[in-house]
Amino acid sequence: MLLPNSIDYEGPFPRLSRRLRLGVVGGGRIAGLQASAAYLTDRWEIVAGAFSSDPVRAKAASTDWSLPQARCYTSFEQMAELEVKRDDGVDAVMITTPNHLHYPVARAFLEAGIDVLCDKPLTNEVKEAEDLMELTEHTGCVFGVSYVMSCFPMIRQAREYVENSGIGRINQIHVEFMQDWMTPEDIADAAHVKWRLDPSKSGKTSCVGDIGTHAAHLAQFVCGLKMTHLRAEFHVCGSPKPLEDTVFMMTRYEGDVPGTLMATRLAPGNRGGLRLRVFGSQGGMEWDLEDCERLKLNQFGQPDRIVSRGHGHGVSSRVERLVRTARGFPEGIIEAWGNLYTEFAMAVAARRDGKLVPDHWLDLPRVNDGMEGVRFIAASVRSNQGKGAWVDI
Length: 393
Hints:
Layout: E1 20-25, H1 29-40, E2 44-50, H2 55-65, H3 76-83, E3 92-95, H4 102-111, E4 115-118, H5 126-139, E5 143-145, H6 153-163, E6 170-178, H7 191-194, H8 199-202, H9 207-223, E7 227-235, E8 246-253, E9 257-264, E10 273-280, E11 283-288, E12 294-299, E13 305-308, H10 317-320, H11 333-353, H12 367-385, E14 391-392
């Protein structure tokens, strides 16, 4: 058994009887970041990987990852086939490849009965996303999707505040993700950028599929309302590119709640410019990624209230279990990734133990969230092609 027999589902996450074995498919910068977060949890060890499609580079990765060459595979197909046969094979795999590979890689590991945590967007096509959701249900595997912005403690606190009617009936939702790294005129020539602007790899969008989908998921996660309709306009605001670098949207959520969504990579002075503002019949709240430790709350007619990450002082017990350091000692994106990998570990352990856990225990984004993200992307493409027409997601 990985989990203890008795679990306090309202308290801190329990220790496991052993570290889970994690495999990596994809060897870029984001793989290293996620690996750091997985190690931070002390619930994972990285034991295998398919780090490159180039066989020489794939084997050479053993040095960088401190792994035996025998477990640095030259293809993800080989990795899935051989790892499932080992007594010490991977319990789960992280997928950090370019978008067009998410579907075949995820499918290969699901078919092998191996749990998956996949980068977003889940796939480039709705049909592929639906297929992965069906396969996940058929295999019973855990399938997490890396909408990591939902794993910041103060975002979880914001969600609880909405659930407890802290701002009354929601009447507006505004979310934006402003970055500036595509401002240079020659940015499209950079090696790490080329695939993001290549429709054969990135899909039919670039900005929307990469950061717009983060914004859409965050708004729905916090507010508990599905986005139902949108109208989108894609723009190339900088040097010529085959895919958009900016998008402006009008949005509607369940209950006919209106909103806006903006995303761009050409906003000089903005780096992690993800900002969520939600307004209701009794008050409002705001969260900013670059000030992620604080959540601004307001009851109309009352002084503003700032809740900060840490123990007590307005933070619930469910949020406290995602906190590592005391109030005033900053945490950030690595810790948010760590929260995602902690909840993923709990879900994987519960499946392997055959243990049923309460629905409210784990809030990690799942394959259905990934599918909704792909539908959001597809709807934005349809709307843009229709010159900004309203479309049903």
